[in-house]
TrEMBL record:
<dbReference type="GO" id="GO:0005506">
    <property type="term" value="F:iron ion binding"/>
</dbReference>
<comment type="subunit">
    <text>Dimer of heterotrimers. Each heterotrimer consists of a large, a medium and a small subunit.</text>
</comment>
<protein>
    <recommendedName>
        <fullName>Carbon monoxide dehydrogenase large chain</fullName>
        <ecNumber>1.2.5.3</ecNumber>
    </recommendedName>
</protein>
<dbReference type="Pfam" id="PF01315">
    <property type="entry name" value="Ald_Xan_dh_C"/>
</dbReference>
<keyword id="KW-0560">Oxidoreductase</keyword>
<dbReference type="InterPro" id="IPR037165">
    <property type="entry name" value="AldOxase/xan_DH_Mopterin-bd_sf"/>
</dbReference>
<dbReference type="GO" id="GO:0030151">
    <property type="term" value="F:molybdenum ion binding"/>
</dbReference>
<dbReference type="GO" id="GO:0005507">
    <property type="term" value="F:copper ion binding"/>
</dbReference>
<feature type="domain" description="Aldehyde oxidase/xanthine dehydrogenase a/b hammerhead">
    <location>
        <begin position="32"/>
        <end position="141"/>
    </location>
</feature>
<dbReference type="InterPro" id="IPR012780">
    <property type="entry name" value="CO_Mo_DH_lsu"/>
</dbReference>
<dbReference type="GO" id="GO:0008805">
    <property type="term" value="F:carbon-monoxide oxygenase activity"/>
</dbReference>
<dbReference type="InterPro" id="IPR046867">
    <property type="entry name" value="AldOxase/xan_DH_MoCoBD2"/>
</dbReference>
<dbReference type="Pfam" id="PF20256">
    <property type="entry name" value="MoCoBD_2"/>
</dbReference>
<dbReference type="GO" id="GO:0043885">
    <property type="term" value="F:anaerobic carbon-monoxide dehydrogenase activity"/>
</dbReference>
<dbReference type="Pfam" id="PF02738">
    <property type="entry name" value="MoCoBD_1"/>
</dbReference>
<keyword id="KW-0186">Copper</keyword>
<dbReference type="InterPro" id="IPR016208">
    <property type="entry name" value="Ald_Oxase/xanthine_DH-like"/>
</dbReference>
């Protein structure tokens, strides 16, 4: 607000627009138990579904006997693959060009796989009936290790036997899905071969799960009289669900209404399409009454979209002075039983090719091999669905390993190699055009804020004290500098199932000067109802408090691709600003008529059009809105509405600098986070308070993943972490007091300069926590130890290094 005078500033502040830490409007209902989640939807005569799930990770299904279950009072139907087959719904297409069983067809491929769907009068009868379904299994050899899968004679996907071409090119083996290559292989190998220094490491980013508070679920209601199907569900992309449902069921798209009501956290877990949705829909079509399906916690952890499971082998080369010359990365990606990743079609490993990170690396090569195993499918989710978390973890570990190889300070190594401010827009070796950045400024600010030199000095003293036997605690300084890539589109290279990744906003100004705007995205807790109103407030001069934001109902919202990959602000946020500008353009014509001047004689002033040079002559947006509906204006249609579909020219590239100071008790393996500093640059900031909340949330999920959270399997393919007894979900007890900070480097192509932020803290946080653990042991010869760094594993690391002797 720098060019505004005091009076204008006051008016601008009243709008609660860009930059205002406006309180979240949705919290009034969330904090008073008035949210409306899928499970809150209750309809007359509604039936309840529940799944029979496989106890085995790999088995032939010899027979299914549903007689006893059907005989139970209150059971209406038991669906198996045989019932779905005539409808061609026993398998469904996945978002990655593969197909997935809706219900077990001949065999099961992971523990917890859906085998039969029981529909009953209530949830409890359904659960009892599940126990009565008799399934005869014949166990088959189980493969949970992707490297073993590529050697094994065991064919996991018999349906693909003999198929040498997959959705993403040739398959090398019957358990192989795809190979995805980016960059220059020969040139990179040449650079690595000639290099003065090469560091090599394999880093495993374990399988984990976002575990949102609300599990997945749906209520389907087929109105046979009107031919209309309504589905309420936990959908991060409701329009996509509508289109897919129409294509699969043959019901015309206008006869399907998909609604995402309040969602209790998404984190990518609710992007995919699950058998439960399909079964609820089929059951409602068959029975003619509404059918509800809600997953329990174990089902959520065992069978819905997991995250990661990436084995990444890297080689990074540099000169003796530390200038990086090349990067080579090979990934073995464990996709589980079906390839159900929700990546844009052309990116089978998401945006993993952002793995050159924030560094000016001239030559690079990436190859990813996707592999089938006997684990749950899904691999998209968790605060960077598109594999940017994996990429950031990989490069930030490689930098640390290279620093060890060079015997150099890791902060300095980063500084030497950062892409410089004047290099933006920057073309990366693996094909991205970074829109804007100022990494050196952010890094210097972060290091100064934590007194980096002081920390290193203290750490060195601690090591000496430890060696003298005066303390049993080591100190780790975790660093990370990340670059995110968010906001898919552009349509020309990003689509999901052929649908281009644009987004949309439709605005309607009411005669009295308040408004409703509808978007193609859907909040799962991010606060869109608060922030998108702020964008509009600044664009059209109507207070955010007078603007309703609505999302998630396909009957009313304009078509959009949904919310994940931090795309809402970069894409729908841009559409919102541009729709606002269309409103303003029409408002200007109306104002010109009312003030009897030419359009060009007006200028915009916060919330009104003013006649240039005659500030006392103006029309406020409120007056203009009234006139738009109530006054005949020659050559101008009545009403004040606009719609904008936005295809972004590029993604946005938020970045950040994080530092974690950790103390580790060598004898117990217990770590304590003394300090966590997070500087985020997401371009123009819409709502600083919401951003801070996003950062706190993302960091806490990063802490979880780095320090203990895991979906672990035993050799038999049993999920060992299917409950909160053994799946780590941090509470206030484990969470430190985060220090947040920022710089502002606007996106040059976004209408208001904003970049996404929701995923950033996770992307940057995981390597930061992990680097802190690794760094604590650097002085004792540790190069790399795998996550999750729970107390037991930290203790083992200390033990391996001889620190208990
Ligand atoms: N610059 C800026 C940016 C942003 N913002 C804000 O913040 C938020 C966020 O954003 P973004 O970044 O754009 O994002 P989105 O799209 O909206 O969202 C998404 C994300 O988000 C996050 N966060 C969150 N939060 C909550 N609460 N919940 C949830 O669920 C969640 N999730 C997570 C995830 S995972 Mo994926 O799906 O995996 O892909 S992706 C993701 C919003 O409200 C907005 O507006 C601001 O203010 N400013
Ligand atoms: Cu992402």
């Amino acid at each position: 607000m720098k060019d505004l005078n005091e009076e204008q500033q006051e008016r601008a502040a009243g709008l609660k627009g860009l930059g205002c830490s406006r309180k979240r409007v949705e919290d009034a209902r969330f904090t008073q138990g008035k949210g409306n989640y899928v499970d809150d939807i209750k309809m007359p005569g509604m039936l309840h579904g529940d799944f029979v799930r496989s106890p085995y990770a790999h088995a032939r299904v010899k027979s299914i006997n549903t007689d006893a279950a059907m005989a139970l009072d209150g059971v209406v139907a038991v669906l198996t693959a045989k019932d779905l087959e005539p409808l061609s719904l026993h398998w469904m297409p996945t978002l990655a060009g593969d197909k997935q069983m809706v219900l077990a067809d001949g065999k099961v491929l992971f523990q917890g796989q859906e085998v039969a769907f029981v529909v009953a009068r209530d949830r409890f009868i359904a659960a009892d009936a599940v126990e009565l379904v008799e399934v005869e299994y014949e166990e088959l050899p189980v493969i949970v290790n992707p490297f073993e899968a590529l050697q094994s004679d065991v064919v996991l996907r018999e349906d693909l036997a003999g198929q040498t071409e997959g959705a993403h090119g040739p398959r090398k083996h019957h358990n192989h899905i795809f190979t995805w290559e980016v960059g220059e292989k020969d040139a990179t190998e040449q650079v690595l071969g000639d290099a003065e220094v090469v560091a090599e490491e394999t880093v495993y980013y374990h399988r984990t799960h976002p575990c949102p508070l609300e599990t997945c679920g749906a209520v389907a209601s087929m109105d046979k009289v009107n031919g209309k199907l309504t589905v309420w569900g936990t959908f991060q992309a409701p329009h996509v669900v509508r289109t897919v449902a129409s294509l699969l069921s043959g019901i015309e798209e206008h006869n399907i209404r998909v609604v995402s009501p309040d969602i209790g956290g998404g984190f990518g877990n609710k992007v995919g399409v699950y058998p439960g949705y399909v079964c609820a829909i089929v059951a409602s079509i068959v029975t003619g009454v509404p059918v509800k399906w809600i997953e329990d916690r174990m089902e959520n952890l065992m069978s819905t979209a997991f995250a990661r499971d990436y084995w990444m082998t890297g080689k990074i080369s540099a000169t003796k002075e530390g200038k990086i010359t090349g990067l080579h990365c090979h990934v073995t990606a464990d996709h589980g039983a079906f390839d159900a990743c929700a990546d844009p079609t052309k990116f089978p490993a998401g945006f993993m090719n952002i793995c050159t990170g924030s560094y000016d690396i001239p030559t690079a090569y990436l190859a990813v091999d996707g592999v089938y195993t006997n684990k749950a499918p899904g691999g998209v989710s968790y605060r960077c669905s598109f594999r940017v978390t994996e990429a950031a973890y990989f490069i930030e570990r490689m930098i640390e390993v290279l620093a060890i190889e060079l015997n150099m300070d890791a902060a300095e190594l980063r500084r030497i190699n950062f892409i410089k401010k004047e290099q933006f827009p920057y073309q990366s070796a693996l094909g991205w055009e970074y829109d804007s950045g100022d990494y050196h400024t952010a890094w210097d600010k972060a290091l100064k804020a934590v007194d980096y030199e002081g920390l290193r000095k203290e750490q060195a003293d601690r090591v000496e004290a430890f060696k003298r036997g005066e303390t049993r605690k080591l100190m780790g300084v975790g660093l990370s500098f990340f670059t995110e890539i968010v906001g898919a589109g552009p349509v020309k290279n990003c689509d999901i199932l052929g649908m281009g990744m644009f987004d949309s906003c439709e605005i309607r100004i009411h005669p009295t000067g308040s408004a409703i705007a509808r978007l193609g995205t859907i909040s799962q807790g991010q606060g869109h109802a608060t922030t998108f109103a702020q964008i509009l407030a600044s664009e059209i001069g109507i207070s955010a408090d007078s603007i309703t934001i609505e999302e998630g109902d396909t009957d009313t919202a304009p078509y959009g691709l949904g919310t994940y990959g931090s795309r809402s602000t970069p894409v729908a946020g841009a559409a919102t600003a541009l729709a606002g500008r269309k409103i303003r353009a029409k408002a200007q014509m109306i104002a010109a008529y009312l003030l009897e001047v030419h359009d060009n004689d007006l200028e915009w002033d916060v919330d009104r059009f003013v006649v240039k040079g005659a500030p006392e002559r103006f029309k406020t947006m409120k007056e203009i809105a009234y006139a738009a509906y109530n006054q005949a204006i020659p050559g101008v249609e009545p009403g004040l509405e606009a719609v904008s579909y936005y295809d972004p020219p590029n993604m946005t590239y938020p970045f950040g600098a994080y530092v974690c100071v950790m103390d580790i008790d060598v004898d117990t393996g217990v770590q304590e986070i003394r300090k966590f500093y997070a500087l985020d640059d997401c371009g123009t900031r819409i709502n600083p308070m919401i951003i801070e909340g996003q950062v706190h949330g993302g960091l806490t999920e990063a802490l979880a993943v780095a320090l203990g959270q895991e979906i672990a399997y035993d050799d038999m393919g049993n999920v060992k972490t299917g409950t909160f007894m053994d799946f780590f979900l941090p509470t206030a007890w484990e969470v430190p007091n985060y220090i947040t900070d920022h710089t502002v480097t606007p996106s040059p192509h976004h209408p208001i300069g904003a970049k996404g932020v929701g995923e950033s803290p996770h992307v940057g946080g995981v390597p930061c926590f992990s680097n802190a653990v690794n760094d604590a042991f650097r002085a004792f010869g540790l190069r790399h130890t795998h996550m999750p760094h729970d107390h037991w594993r930290i203790w083992q690391t200390a033990n391996r290094l001889g620190l208990h002797d």
